[in-house]
Amino acid sequence: MTVLVVLGGQYGDEGKGKIADYLGHFYDIGIRPTAGDNAGHTVVVDGKKLSMRHLYSAAASANFSIIGDDVLLNLETFFKEIDMFAKAGHDLSNKVFVSQRAELVLPYHIAADSINESGKRAFGTTKRGVGPAMADRVSRIGLRVEDCFDLDGLAAKIKDRMDTFNKVSTAIHGETSFMDPQAVIDQILPLAKRLQPFIKNTTLLIHQAVKENRSILVEGAQAAMLDLTYGAYPYVTSSRPVSSGLMGGVGIGPRYVNTVLSVIKPYQTRVGIGPVMAEMVGDEDETAKHIREVGGERGVNTGRDRRIMWLDTVVLRYSNMINGTNVHALMKLDVLDDRETIKVCTGYRLNGQVIKDMPMLSELANCEPVYQELPGWQTPTSHIRSYADLPQQAKDLITLIEQETEVPIAIISVGPDREYTIEREHVAEMGLKPGQSYQNKNLGEPTP
Ligand code: IMP
After folding, report:
1. SS3 of 182, please?
2. For the chain, what is the largest distance between any 2 Cα atoms, rounded to a whole number of angstroms?
3. Cβ pair 45, 92 in contact under 8 A
4. 19-60 residue pLDDT tens
5. Mutate which of 6, 263, 271 to test ligand 1's pocket (most atoms within 8 Å of Cβ)?
6. pTM above 0.90, yes or no
7. Among 10, 126, 276, which residue has the most ligand 1 atoms within 8 Å of its CB, making it the best to mutate?
8. How far is CA 407 from CA 311, 316, 321, 391, 423, in A?
């Protein structure tokens, strides 16, 4: 049995969706264990681009996939995606199962997120209600997917939670923040009823799969630096994108995980506010604009411009340490194709000393990035399918990342679609043979 965890190694938007879709064809089951519809990924299925937030990236080709225990489920988003797949010719009704423990994100959570973001304590969230829904879960007043089996009970609980919401929000923000509980009940109940056949005791399903020696791909959302505990707190999401956090939403012990694959870009981006190092500002604003254009670095969810940073190997070392990373997938190499020089932040200067490891967050404000500059390759790479054919300067960048992190790069992506992918010998860490993946497999067929 193989369990592969695919996660984000930086600040999110590294391209986990492409990797999960690409590798998903080798795994029987896919699990999205955490996060809400604040996440967003686009995959190409039968030549059609499909943008998803809740569903597993390889939902169409997996035997089945699971929305896991720590997911914050927005019912409207979920059914939009199910309907989008149906329109594209994939009926997922018997192939997607939702954990009874997942949390419902309701309209008042979304309203509360927007209200919070309009105040002086804004974190630059996606306003999808994730923080307020998680706060309800921790306060033990959340509504769970299992509540959808009892529609009258669900309606009563919504009314109860919204009475409190309205009291607090109208007292602080005035009458305009009032939401009609009945309108919310009328909106949610038909969706809750529609959800019933999707709800399963996913813990048992997953353990059965483990017993049967099936292969499982755990698809993370967001990334290490957005983790509630290990990220750049408080500018983080409310769930746990690191490997241990992801496994918390799967419900199997860590001893079953074979490989942790951290997806990274040769630069970094972040949506929203918060401290970052190596940001391209001032003189480097032009480079940032270029990367934003060529790399499409705008939020899938919010349409916001992403902040652009040079690659920071302090972040990578930290993220690999916490995640127990075995291998990297390096995405979007082609975005740097025409750069004359490429900078890599390999350490921070703190009190006159160069440090290589992530300091405490309180020390970050006193740190300055220390860069290593490499010549760019200034030639297209998107047509390349073998590591040997990459320009020497690109190989030098890859070698530098590997030396700095002591983690091999197994997969290199040079374009958005599946075929724009280079596999290296390190894919053996995932039980694959180099070159076995895209070229030699009929990707349309699920494994029996
Ligand atoms: P929230 O998850 O909507 O509460 O937002 C908290 C922080 O996480 C904000 O900085 C968001 O921009 C960021 N964030 C949440 N989801 C994603 C994602 O999928 N990619 C990148 N950033 C994200």
Report:
1. helix
2. 65
3. no
4. 999 999 889 999 999 999 998 888 877 778 889 999 999 999
5. 271
6. yes
7. 126
8. 15, 10, 10, 21, 15
